[in-house]
Amino acid sequence: MKNLKLDWPVFAISGGFLLVFVIASLVNAGFVGNLVNTAFAWSSLTFGAFWQVLMILTFIIAVFMSLTELGKVRLGDSSKPTFSFFKWFSMIMITLLAGGGVFWAAAEPMYHYLDTPPMYSETGSAATAIQAGLSTGFLHWGFLAWSILGTLGVVVLMYAKKKGQPLKPRALLYPLFGEKIMHKSVLGTLIDVFSILAACAGTIGPIGFLGLQAGYGLNMLFGLPDTFAIHFAMIFFLVGIAAVSAATGIHKGIQWLSRFNVIITVILAIAILILGPARFIIDSFVTSYGSYMQNFFPMSLYRGDEGWLSGWTIFFWGWFIGYGPIMAIFISRISDGRTIRELFLTVAFLAPVVTNFWFTVVGGTGIFYEMSEPGSVSDPLNEGGLPASIFAIVNQLPLGALFAFLFIFVTCVFVATTADSISYSISMIITGKETPDRFIRIFWALIFGAVAAALLYIGEGSIDSLQSFIVLTAVPVSLFMLPTLWLAPLTAKRLLRIQQKEEAK
């Protein structure tokens, strides 16, 4: 503890804000919620179009870099990858997909199936209700979302690392400002703080929702009371897993937990295909992916219905942009020895396709049962929200109770893996070390659980407010991620020259 060196301004400001948010919510949750919602609406209206352009340009530049000689650049100092492809891909998938892999996979396709998004009618895009339901989910969890989380920013960070700089969000501007941004810089401190707060909001929200989902599921399966005590117990069971995983590090806990969850998720997907509507799922995936690709640009750049955009596309874009720097730091930490082409093809193409197929397996099954018996999924969804949707779907499968239990379990591991990865990444920022002190890793995992439990105790609306706060933090985060559009190709060229000189020796 005496030798623990921290970036105290970043630690104090970010930790202090979380404390103030909890206290303010305890004093007047309604006022805090209204304040966040007002700021959320302003952010969406003012920056929504900018975020849409930023997302699509990030993807296009990533594609361009993958296809040129820049794709040959090897990141880091290792001549070979540190992790096998399966271990590496598992950590990327589970960390970046997070709780959304279950929360939204069940609910979002159903929402869009029941209420066709306005972009289809207003742009003249042709799609059935099934295609509209699934392809809109593909947009929000597809190429653009994954690209902003782990492509251009990683290249810039790995360049800074090559120059001996620590992996911190402020390093995204290192090629512009040099070492001035890295040490005792007000701008650098603010960049780190906003990135940490965005990651905290985006992690604490799913932890709180997991408590609600687990409470709902355990009540349905075993008749346990759906009370705060159960929510609290589930939150700290999950946080305990995350803390142990973060404490054991990337090479043990985090990668083991990620691999385990990928295997369980694949088994679940295969089981649903075998016992559920396999032909409908596969047909829907193919036709809806065709609709997604055909309408990719009209959907990505749609600017018609501001209310719908704020509730869906802009909300998700703000969420993913806010997460961007922290996720880029984590991916940089595990991607030594990978080429830019490997990284971009995995993050921007393979991961989105796998995610979209999972959305079709879960959400498509829900649409199938809703078509067979209207109200069987939509009524629980409308009455009980996100936690109810997945259980309404799996209960209609053979062995429904077993599926429900496994989905509770897999969601716990999804969220725990994200919590341990984020706590590890925040600890890297606070300490400036690639392997931060165990105490600080455990501390941040416990903070996530404590804040989630406190806000859930105050009321579910406080969890919603904190999760919406990530969209506010996305405003400054998007401004300092904008330079990566030209800094990533620039730094990749510099890394290529360094690599060519080393190979010539």
From TrEMBL:
<comment type="similarity">
    <text>Belongs to the BCCT transporter (TC 2.A.15) family.</text>
</comment>
<feature type="transmembrane region" description="Helical">
    <location>
        <begin position="190"/>
        <end position="216"/>
    </location>
</feature>
<keyword id="KW-1003">Cell membrane</keyword>
<keyword id="KW-0813">Transport</keyword>
<protein>
    <submittedName>
        <fullName>BCCT family transporter</fullName>
    </submittedName>
</protein>
<keyword id="KW-1133">Transmembrane helix</keyword>
<dbReference type="InterPro" id="IPR000060">
    <property type="entry name" value="BCCT_transptr"/>
</dbReference>
<feature type="transmembrane region" description="Helical">
    <location>
        <begin position="465"/>
        <end position="488"/>
    </location>
</feature>
<feature type="transmembrane region" description="Helical">
    <location>
        <begin position="389"/>
        <end position="418"/>
    </location>
</feature>
<feature type="transmembrane region" description="Helical">
    <location>
        <begin position="343"/>
        <end position="369"/>
    </location>
</feature>
<feature type="transmembrane region" description="Helical">
    <location>
        <begin position="85"/>
        <end position="107"/>
    </location>
</feature>
<keyword id="KW-0472">Membrane</keyword>
<feature type="transmembrane region" description="Helical">
    <location>
        <begin position="262"/>
        <end position="282"/>
    </location>
</feature>
<feature type="transmembrane region" description="Helical">
    <location>
        <begin position="309"/>
        <end position="331"/>
    </location>
</feature>
<keyword id="KW-0812">Transmembrane</keyword>
<feature type="transmembrane region" description="Helical">
    <location>
        <begin position="439"/>
        <end position="459"/>
    </location>
</feature>
<dbReference type="Pfam" id="PF02028">
    <property type="entry name" value="BCCT"/>
</dbReference>
<feature type="transmembrane region" description="Helical">
    <location>
        <begin position="228"/>
        <end position="250"/>
    </location>
</feature>
<feature type="transmembrane region" description="Helical">
    <location>
        <begin position="39"/>
        <end position="64"/>
    </location>
</feature>
<feature type="transmembrane region" description="Helical">
    <location>
        <begin position="138"/>
        <end position="160"/>
    </location>
</feature>
